User: Fold galactosylceramidase from Lutibacter agarilyticus.
Amino acid sequence: MVQGMEIKNLKCEGQTNPVGITKTHPSFSWTFVGDKTSPEQGGFRIMMATSIEKLKYPDIWDTGPTSNSNTGPYKYLGEPLKSGQKVYWKVTAWGNNRGVVHSEPSWFVMGDIKNPENAFEPPVFEQKNGVVKITLNPKDKGRVFEGIGGVSAGASTDLLYDYKDPYQSQILDILFKPKFGAGFQHLKVEMGGGENSTCGSEPSHAISREELKNPVSRGYEFWLMREAKNRNKDLILEYLPWSFPGYLKPNIYTKESAEYFVSFLDVAKRDWNLDIDWVAAAENENYTDRDWLVNEVRPLLDARGYKKVKIQGPDDNSGDWQIFEAFENDPEFDKVVEALGYHYISGREFTEDMVDGRGRPTTQKAKASGKPLWASEDWSWTGKDWGGAGALNLARLYNKFYIRDKITKTLIWAPIGSIYKSVTWDKAGAMKANSPWSGYYEVWPTIWATAHTTQFAEPNKWNYLDKACGLFDAATYKGSCVTLKEENSDNWSMIICTEETEILEVKIEEGLSDKLVSVWKSDENNQFVQQESILPKKGKFVINLDPKCIYSLTTTTGQQKGHYEIPNETAFPFPYSEDYEDRKAGDLPKYHSDQTGSFEIAKKEDGTNYLKQINPEQGYDWMRIYRRSNIKPNTLVGDINWKNFTCSVDVFIDGGNVELGGRVQGSYLKGHRLMLEKNGNWKLVFDKTTLAEGSIQNFDGNIWHHLKLSFKEEEIKVFVDGELLTEVTHKIGNGYVLLGSSYNNNLFDNLKIFKE
Assistant:
């Protein structure tokens, strides 16, 4: 009998299903039983809820997935539990070599707590006769607003780089130009590592130890930061890695990896004249390392002239701000981490109710620290929707994060969805731009939901007024208001989200402007429309608000709904050919979407260009514990709808093997692919199934070869150097053309896609 993974012996305070627990923050443990593939635990997640049914979206506590091999005891860090409360809990664990297992639900019952702690209760505005009363007081204290931003990562900005002006410039204006569109005030980018990081892979600035001595500007993130800064000189910049090059394995927290982090700043300054403000010195959603930050990263930043660059962390997707537990008795650690960011503070229940979900709230300890608290990656949905988890929901989250969590900066993934259809997370983004050949793009409601905050307050120049930040109904965050004041003037702004019809009476105390109040409104049908202005009388005004809307009220001016004429969308050009001559060596190839590995244009001895896979070995794969890797370097090009076509390419096999694929569906090599090795062995595969294979006699692996695949309904033909190798009948599919490679410097040229 084959032993499978198992989680058993779930215990609360060392007991099985205990009754009478009196600790408001008990500890949990369990036993992990591995299998042959994964003998040890690689990570875990604890979920706690008020019922077994709610364990799917826990309403009491959710650690999120951790990369932690310990099986407890693990302390509960949520809101204090109450006397008599019955709590259900379960554990999910991942093996150290992938594979996942879920425990059966367990439970415990709280006893009589002698000194109960008070749980957080959100502020609720006073109401009188159905009218909400809000007073704006210039002496009211609140935190400094630090901005709304986007995370360009996971290859989510891939195809934007291929747009031509004027359309590329228009899109960038809508994203970053102040008081025009979304006006993102903070941009965090991926420090690429060459492995798949969600919707594809982004190249590294130092793929080898040799390159680390003289790092290289690659990909589009440096370009994107420069373009964003050109539109907003005050834009705040940050970077974070997902994967790492292979030479940094197996320990990514070393002196060498600190050099790798800092060298990214060197490239930004040397080649792009960019001063980056923050480094998220961690691995995305996999915590960080205290000794490395204190002893390596901060000293190296200082020594290399980057004393102004601040460290943000841990950029984790687990725990309830548990880093503050580590800070308590560690002043050095506390000092080097100058802002705290966690991911998915809202949780991952992508419905309209996610705003009321527990998620990952900040702790009292976090709030009391006085440190900047950030939602450093959140939301992750389609900006096309108004309802559900879409635009209205995001505006509500922006407000909630301050009202509940004292979070002063929120970053969403992704600011723009610029990836091929059917690739992982292809619908995510505040707007869409995935048709560079036509110039077509879509400006979605979420752009304007974001503008309701960004066009009315600037980072580090505006403060929240806490007594004018709250809810209309204690039962839900769907109706809320936050108010901010400009530091060096009497200007103020209010950002309001409604669920029901509301009547607001606003009293403006002396020291704040009681001049003309501009009003902007968004609803399901029309976004960011200026309404009739209000002139307060004797420091007061009343406004009637419609349900399920976003409003911004302000004494500032200059807001606008930026607009450009957008061209019609057209299909990917067919037939298509690519000789890689239209871009310089070291650049990205046009319309290609790397899913794993790094493909860049290089120059032949005769001065012409070809495409080269440059990663010398498999890197340190992001989320390696929780999901399967993408196997080998590959890049997509074309149209998901292609069905009957022929594709061909010239290849030079430096080592290992190369692939030409067709009808490929997305990120994980799903489609028909011809694989050719340097020794002449070949295979035609569909997903993981071999359809045909053989060996070419007298094959010369040291010269260029020509590969061709032909698709006509169920008939698939395979050619190498003009010779038919096989003809098979297999199911009809549709999808992209793929170029694949082992981790070798294999070369491609003269790609052609046509109909015979």
